[in-house]
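Researcher: Good morning. I'm working through a list of sequences from a screen, and I'd like to move beyond sequence-only analysis. For each chain I'm collecting a predicted structure so we can compare shapes side by side. This is the next one on the list. No need for commentary yet; just the structure.
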Amino acid sequence: MDATRSDPRRWWALSAMCLAVFLVAVDGTVLALATPSIVEDLQPTASQVLWIGDIYSFVLAGLLITMGNLGDRFGRKFLLLVGGTLFALISIPAAYSTSAEMLILCRALLGVAGATLMPSTLALMRSTFTDDTERSFAIGVWSAMGAAGAAAGPLFGGALLQHFWWGAVFLVNVPIMALVLIIGLPTLRESRDPNPGSLDLLSVALSMGGILGVVYAVKELAIRGVEAQYLLTGVIGAVLLTWFVMRQRRLEHPLVDVR
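Model: Good morning. Structure tokens for this chain:
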């Protein structure tokens, strides 16, 4: 019998990975109902309000590919644990932010932490579940938890705001992510690419610039309607992503294998 398949810890590992991706997704939408309280308390400008809401998702999206590659190099379990630790620690100053600038910085750093751990959760499925049927089921649960987290964010935030101040939507991250670390540390199996090659910095820049450009353009076009500056941003992002894909096809050790 496959030793991995017979190991009951794999289901505990799945619960840690799913809880992590759920929380990362929740933080993308949890401020929907907290914004009025934040505006009243921190007195941000209109532009700062937008950045408080958006910068987390922008940074998260922009760094996913790069952080996934770093997990291949340094260990996927290692990056998940590092990202989870940072996510919990940064949530504390975010909850007690005394200015809009401080909250924007904390939200950006939470995006970095989320991007650090999120790719590893999916990559670890392969080493945790060697049986194809079990792996497909695990990935399905993982995907559902991510979607559920995004949908539950406003409900989660609203429930907390009924009893606590707006900082509670960040502070609650600490015990939940601590639970992820407690479960994940003994149950997750470390895995990495034994021959990752050198890190191509141009590919890193192209992936970040392309993804950020497209995500920003789509978000602004959806809110403001068709405007030339946002269309141009989207086109530039698409060009950078096309260049990124073409470059990956030529590299011996690509950031993402698209061949």
